[in-house]
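User: quick one, sequence for these tokens?
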């Protein structure tokens, strides 16, 4: 992977994609795989904002049944199956226990009906290439069985649970990167740390036509014009701010386009649950979940409207305390989760397109794809809303619209049935067993973890591991190592310490990895990226600020 912006000479692309989160990544891949010339620019790092702030699930959205969003649930469940097929190392079935209490506003009967509907909408859930990922049918679990499976569950008023299967995402950050790599594989040009500053406009009486975008390569500190026939705005929570840069002529003002934003935070603690994702309703009729995650527990999530500049967003102590208060009312059986139990916290902003609901929790996760001709602008499409699970389908529709605007022949999408780059695996269990035998000197569970992260690229990683005896040392219990740092820089466009430790690897996703580990990684990164001591210290400081739990 190379940043195209460093050697760009003025080529006109068919399509320019603004935003390197999951939406921009899937759009770039979808367009490139259908033969369009594509450029994608991202102002920070790929998947570093909303796409990295997920609950690490690929799911249908059981709760959307209560608001009768049946088409969204069906689309999500279909796309869950598609992602399991095309990214088998990243997406895996996991068991959920949805608890039922006497005080819940949703009765046990209604939950059973909801589960029956969920089963109906996921009728094709086992139409998968990889037969090792079969998902059992839901069943009702007794109170006694829940006490056995989840000893920390509140016992008071507990009347049972629904056991069903959805899917987890091993690494949303690396799954986003897999779409980026797949786009590059089909010829797309991509660049991170490339800030969009404005549009290149051709003015006329009737319409302003966009001919490209003005950007700043923030690594080289260089201003560049990138030319394209059509621009797709995939900036997520920043989509309205990007659109606002496309001011039309006074006779066709765009006005201020305001997108609704919802904050979602998560916290990670030491292990509280075992093999099951434990979920249920809070006293305020919202849902919570505790996810087994790398021998820790991931707890989420909030859904609260955020007002302000998305660039200034950060997780606050108040938001964490509100989440803890809700979860502690519904889990712990008297043993409350304390603030000091938190080892890491992260959050992000979800872009929403629905304005009718007062509470963003009840807002739809639908998406919209709009052309801007109504605002006196030609050559621009804006994509808003959506969720991680449905991003591929959203991209399919966006590219259909792009082909129509560009007056190009409609070409059938291949993304539904084509493995992502690095995910060309027919049976994941067999693949893991093969790699465990091939690299028998390493612990089997660590090979499985690396197989999930790298898929068929694991052999390239091991070529680096075998370069230097120091690279074999495990830096955490998952077996992550220094070779991954080299791999991230040489092959995956990692430019900063947070890129390496939060998105290319999970070395800092469970909180501060220790001064020793951080120093080892930083020194190797400095060598590969030619940092001086001052730059290395700056990168360490930057990462440690991110890892701070709000005081």
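Assistant:
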């Amino acid at each position: 992977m190379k940043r195209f912006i460093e050697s760009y000479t003025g080529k006109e692309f068919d399509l320019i994609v603004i935003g390197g989160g999951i939406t921009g990544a899937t759009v770039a891949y979808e367009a490139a795989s259908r033969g369009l010339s594509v450029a994608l620019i991202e102002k920070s790092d790929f998947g570093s904002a909303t796409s990295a702030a997920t609950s690490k699930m690929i799911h249908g959205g059981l709760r959307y049944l209560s608001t009768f969003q049946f088409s969204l649930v069906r689309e999500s469940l279909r796309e869950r199956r598609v992602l399991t097929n095309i990214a088998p190392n990243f997406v895996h079935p996991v068991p959920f226990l949805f608890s039922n209490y006497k005080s819940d506003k949703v009765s046990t009967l209604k939950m059973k009906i909801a589960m029956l509907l969920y089963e109906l909408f996921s009728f094709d859930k086992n139409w998968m290439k990889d037969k090792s990922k079969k998902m059992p049918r839901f069943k009702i679990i007794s109170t006694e069985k829940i006490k056995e499976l989840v000893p920390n569950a509140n016992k008071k008023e507990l009347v049972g649970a629904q056991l069903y299967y959805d899917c987890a995402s091993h690494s949303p950050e690396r799954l986003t990167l897999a779409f980026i790599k797949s786009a590059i594989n089909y010829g797309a040009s991509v660049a991170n740390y490339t800030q969009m500053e404005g549009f290149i406009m051709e003015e006329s009486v009737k319409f302003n036509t966009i001919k490209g975008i003005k950007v700043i390569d923030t690594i080289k500190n260089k201003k560049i014009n990138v030319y394209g026939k059509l621009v797709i705005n995939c900036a997520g929570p920043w989509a309205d701010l990007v659109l606002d840069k496309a001011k039309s002529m006074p006779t066709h003002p765009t006005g201020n386009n305001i997108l609704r934003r919802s904050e979602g935070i998560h916290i990670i603690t030491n292990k509280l649950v075992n093999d099951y994702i434990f979920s249920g309703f809070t006293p305020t009729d919202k849902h919570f979940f505790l996810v087994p995650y790398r021998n820790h527990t991931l707890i989420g999530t909030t859904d609260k409207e955020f007002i302000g500049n998305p660039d200034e967003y950060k997780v606050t102590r108040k938001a964490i305390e509100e989440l803890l208060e809700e979860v502690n009312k519904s889990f712990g059986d008297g043993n409350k989760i304390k603030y000091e139990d938190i080892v890491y916290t992260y959050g992000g902003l979800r872009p929403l397109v629905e304005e009718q609901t007062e509470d963003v929790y009840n807002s739809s996760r639908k998406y919209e794809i709009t052309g801007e001709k109504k605002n006196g602008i030609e050559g621009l499409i804006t994509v808003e809303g959506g969720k991680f699970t449905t991003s591929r389908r959203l991209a399919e529709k966006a590219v259909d619209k792009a082909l129509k605007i560009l007056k190009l022949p409609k070409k059938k999408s291949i993304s539904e049935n084509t493995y992502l780059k690095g995910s060309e695996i027919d049976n994941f269990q067999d693949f893991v067993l093969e790699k465990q035998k091939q690299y028998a000197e390493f612990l089997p569970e660590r090979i499985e973890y690396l197989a999930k992260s790298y898929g068929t690229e694991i052999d390239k990683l091991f070529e680096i591991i075998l370069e230097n005896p120091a690279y074999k040392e495990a830096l955490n219990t998952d077996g992550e190592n220094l070779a991954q740092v080299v791999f991230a820089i040489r092959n995956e466009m990692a430019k900063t310490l947070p890129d390496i430790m939060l998105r290319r690897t999970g070395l800092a996703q469970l909180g501060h990895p220790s001064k020793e580990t951080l120093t080892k990684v930083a020194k190797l990164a400095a060598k590969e990226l030619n940092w001086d001591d001052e730059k290395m210290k700056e990168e360490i400081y930057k990462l440690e600020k991110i890892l701070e739990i709000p005081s």
